Amino acid sequence: MNVKFAVNDYILIWNLLFQASISEQMHALKQKIWKNYKQEYNNTYEDRELILQDYKNFIPNDDTIYNIILESKEYEKLEKEAEKYRLELMKIWDSNRKEINVLIKKILKKETKTYLIFIVNEELDIIDTESPSNDEKEIVIVGKEIDKLDPLKVLLDIVMEIAKKEIIPTPENKEQEKIKDAIIELAILNELATNLVNKSRYSQGNPALNIIKRYLYPYWLMYLGVEKSEFLNYMMRDKITFDVEKYAYEKELKKLDIEEFIKFCYRNRKYIIRQDLVEVI
Description:
Distance between the termini: 35 Å
Shape: elongated
């Protein structure tokens, strides 16, 4: 997974203007601009797609709002914070890049695109993905707080959003959507995270997906290429149990990539989710 971290003034300013206010000072500045330049403020909202489609060469039709922000002391401080945040994320990424790339290929079994990650203020609490039509790099906009006790969490959140965007097939109904979401969680928040920290992270994720993930778990182990004789070790590791003897070992699953596995689960939904054979210890 190829990624590059950058700060772009226009992307940072747009998000500061139109996401939730991150400070009393920024809120006051936005209110002041709105009071005096309502039309220009509204027009600036329409710039988002234009910025992302040509972030290298974007020139606003009306730069009134951008200039006010750029010349403010508050923006000077926030830009420095964004740059500091970028360097912190880069450090975390560089420390784990090789291992993450090896594991991503092993778990997803597919190549991923190149991503340009634009850093905004971490207090905005956002991760957005975009696909510019005129650039080979996909875009991710990131403003998520780095957990000092678990700094890898922000990287996993970023990889999760990338996986959601990259992995097909597109669900045709709510049931398929839950299956796909559950498999992506198994791949990133659970298996990838477990391998990175050498401790099971299979309790992590959306609680609403827990039941379906338990049903999928035996087939997920087969997809990962775990031998039947090793199932008990994995069940003990992840604190998820199932009756091994009630499952035929699908040896072909380990030959599938993540998208083919999702399709397999779509096709065999009634067979996979057939009765309550699993439980959490």
